[in-house]
Amino acid sequence: MAITSLGLGSGLDIRSIVDGLVAAERGPQDALLARQETDLQTKISSFGTFKGALSDFRSSLAGLRQDSRFGALAATSSDTGVLTASASPNADPGQFSIEAKQQAQAHSLASGGFSDAGAVVGTGTLTIKFGATDFDPVTGAYNGFTQNPDQGTLSVTLDTTNNTLAGLRDAINKADAGVNASIINDGSAFRLVLTSTKTGKDNSLQISVDDPSLAQFEFDAAATNLTQTQVAQDAIASINGLDVTSSSNTFADTIKGVSFDLQKAEPGKLVSLNIAASTGSVVDSVQKFVDSFNALNTTIKSLSAFDAGTKTAGILLGDATLRTGANQIRSVLGGIVGGLENASVRTLNDLGVSTQADGTLKFDSGKLTAALAKDPGNVAAVFAVLGRPDNAGVKFLSAEDTTRTGNFAVNVTQAASQGVLTGANGSVGSLTVAAGVNDTFKISVDGISSANITLTAKTYASGDELAAEIQSRINGDASLKNAGAKVQVAFDAVNNKFAITSAKFGADSAVEITQATAGTVGLAVGAGTTGTDVAGTIGGAVAQGDGQNLTAGNGLKLFIDGGLSGDLGSVKFSRGLMEKLDKVLGGLLDSNGSLTAKTNGLQKSLSEIDDKRKVLDTRINQFQARILKQFNAMDALLGQLQATGGFLTQQLAALPNNNDSKQ
């Protein structure tokens, strides 16, 4: 009879015996896998710490990669409530005494009162021009208007679909053409208020109409039916006793390289403006860079050092990835910048950043400050990717990763030019524009076609006045404006003709009159001369021109001022240490970098431990089943032996007593 319950046959605690044997078999393997898992998790965590320190160090490079910061000048105002300012690197250091006499204002006009915003105002075309208005608000005398050719002309047509006060407001605002319209309820009536979006006396509003029903909105030499609520005026400032003006409250061109803003007018008060070298931001950025590297150095030492006293090794001691990365970083820090081999300043050590015996960096800010004062451009070249032309008409734009360092001669064989349409000599027979006779034309600028352009019908006082009208009308065309196409129109009084020039440079720059009424002030149908791209060589090799941009085969890209040609000096191109450091750090940190590959490998090994545990579970289960089977068999056999022994004992006890048989 088989015994199926453990120990019932033998009386032994077979379950405990089997569990003990299984635990003895499994224990060493479990302990080994646990140690491996802990080691892998600790390494992954350590590499995470290393990556974090590298990322922080990489962030500190940003403030040293912008070359414009190294030649920076600070503009300091003694009263920022009156005047604020900024300075560009090309400014001249100095101190100025400034008086804010008058702030700029935008022209504003208000209509008469209406019962509500839906009141019908009339139909027809309302034309708004921008320029300088000679108007006396006291006497109401409108003495003249000089058009600003740089501002487009706005024509708004009202019909039965939009001939209300609100409809007029919406039509003006939808055009987005330099004037803002609003309806204000002054408590007794609704009024349309028109305000130029630009300040300055040359941006005042002239409003004319072509239908008597709109006469209430007229403000020109014919009638002044709008009320001037704010005069257009320039800002006025006195610089060291010399009065200067600006159409806005910003004065950008009065002091070389300096822009200052009038926050309010305060006549009689002198504000001191000091322009001086600004080294503080660069010094702060270098200090941050040094501190960040030292923090990285501390992290590397804690992860890889060996403590002889405690005989404790860092988690990543001897790790090739960490060691290689640290060596690459140190190699860059101690290197000479490519392209500056012969310069007086060419290494970090030359700028006060030196390596100490313990591997940390030490920063002498005084040495950097002195170098900035002497040659900020050379200091910038140590840190940033930089091209330094020695011709003011050449500007460095960019370079590619493959661009080599060195000194590149620049020679322009063809200057960039603009497309221009010039009328025939004597083509302007009259300065009188007559409606329906010689007032309309269409034009294409840089390949963009205009809608029908209509000039204001009148006799113009001069060719310059008519040129301003033509330019304003062209630049006010919606299609051209939306495409960014602009022109400049000039009148040649000697040859009695107009010249229309595109604002764009290059082979795509072109002007063409595509349609014109007979005798339109010399603007006959025809195409002008197309512009040209700049052409030349950089470093002796033929470069590709695109407008005013000239690009070498190695990716060095320069901007050449229009009209310049011939030998334009050279460009010194160098690659600063920050770019090289960033590439090293990118090789470690990026998604396909060595640290990512390392941690991915560790993660894979960590997942393999789970697989090994599954294999161990299977083997242990098989081992347990096998010894259970063996113990079951042993227990059954012992049970049978015990049963046989009991039977024999009973049989022996039943035999006749040998002593009794002898009697």
Major sheet characteristics: 8 strands, antiparallel
Q: What is the number of strand segments?
A: 38
Weakly predicted, low-confidence segments: none
Secondary-structure-based class equals alpha+beta
Specify the helix fraction band: 25-40%
Residue-averaged pLDDT, rounded?
A: 91
The global form is: elongated
Q: What is the gyration radius calculated from CA atoms?
A: 44 Å
Q: Number of DSSP helices?
A: 11
- Cα-to-Cα separation, first versus last residue: 44 Å
What is the compact description of this entry?
This protein is an alpha+beta fold and 663 residues long. It has 11 helices and 38 strands.
Kindly list the characteristics that best describe this protein.
five-stranded antiparallel β-sheet, alpha+beta, 663 residues, eight-stranded antiparallel β-sheet
Describe the overall structure.
The chain has eleven helices and 38 strands. The chain is an alpha+beta fold. Among the domains are: 109 residues; 74 residues, no CATH class; 126 residues, no CATH class; 110 residues, Alpha-Beta Plaits (2-Layer Sandwich), CATH 3.30.70. The strands form ten sheets. It has an eight-stranded antiparallel beta sheet with strand order 21-38-23-34-35-36-37-22, with helices on one face. Strands 1-16-3-12-13 form a five-stranded antiparallel beta sheet, with no helix packed on it. Strands 26, 27, 28, 32 and 33 form a five-stranded antiparallel beta sheet that branches. Strand 34 and strand 35 form a beta hairpin. The longest helix is centred in the last third of the chain and has 61 residues. The two termini are 44 Å apart.
